[in-house]
Structures are given as structure tokens and as C-alpha cells.
Amino acid sequence: MIKGLFPMPLGIYEIGREYTKEELECLDNPDLLNNIGNQSSAKNNVLNLPSMGFVKQFIEESIDDYVAQTYDFENNAKLHLTQSWTNITQPGGYHHTHTHQNSIVSGTLYLKGNENDIINFYDPVSNGMMNAPWHFPPKEFNDYNSKMWWMPATVGTLYLWPSSVMHGVPKVEGKKNRYSLSFNTFVSGTIGSEHDLTQITI
Length: 202
Hints:
Blueprint: E1 11-14, H1 21-24, E2 32-34, E3 39-41, H2 53-69, E4 78-89, E5 95-98, E6 105-112, E7 118-122, E8 148-152, E9 157-162, E10 167-169, E11 178-188, E12 190-191, E13 200-201
Antiparallel strand pairs: 1-9, 2-3, 3-4, 4-11, 5-10, 6-9, 6-11, 7-8, 7-10, 12-13
């Protein structure tokens, strides 16, 4: 018997409807910041825009479900949104491999793009051993021998994952710009154990 220990939980949620014209106006950002391979909005509180109320509620409810199925916090601990921003990756562009610091769970919601857009997630264990002196090419990839998984970046799909997981976007092969909304979270409430002298209230 093989038992998978310590899996990386990837949350997958669907908004279930098309975006409204008002919601897509969050992409109208005159001020863009240059990133490695793409650009992001200078505005970092996009989900607080009045037009994004439904989208914000959908994301918050998805985060609550994700946390309930993974961390299952004791006491009154809860994840809340901190910063949120939009990304634009033009044809031929990419988004460098990275993690999100000062965040517990991060996520991306896809707004516009190409049918073949994807996002890559990298196994934190095997990628921490990139300089290992051995390499065993598998006959067929599975959950145990894969160092990377790609997932379709479909419009309306929301992905949630632990912020420490490496992820990135390969070269955009389609002819359309790829637009997404990303965000970070942090914990509030009481965490830790009073008995173990690790308890804090944030």
C-alpha cells in the first residue's frame, strides 16, 4: 500500500457566470508596474472596488471553504484578504516563478485570456533538491515523481494554494492578453496553544 503524506492542497473553484462589464473595469489600470515577464496593477486593493462586491464575496467564501477542508483552525481564527491586484501578460510574455511572502494562502482568479493558458505549480520538496546528484526519468508521471504540475487558466476559475508554494506562468502562446486577479491573505483571531505558550491573538 502507498499512502500519500503531506499533500499540497490546491483549491479549485468556479465563479459560475460571466463577468459583468463593471467587474471587468478593474482591468482599466492606467498605472502598471513592470514585473519579470509581465505587468501588474499599481492599485493593490482591487477587491475593495464597489463593482467587485460579488467577486470579493465569491473569493471570501471560497477561502473559508478551503480553510475548513485543510487547516481547520481552532478557536476563532480566520483568513482575511490583505492585498489584491490584477496582472496582464501579453502574448510572448510570462510570469516568473515565485512565492508570496507575508501571506498564508494566495490565489488567482482568471478574468480574460486564451483557451490554452496555464499556470505551473512546483513541488516544494523535489524542487528543494534541484542540485541532487541523481535524476531518474519516470516512465509515466504521477503524484509522487512529478516536480511540476500545470493547470488550465480558464476564465472564471479560481485557484487557492499555500503562499509558500512556487508557481509561475510559462510563455503565453495565444494571441490575446492574459488577465488575472491575484490576492494574499493573513490570519486574524486567536492562534496557537495557551498550554504550549504559543498562543497569540491578532
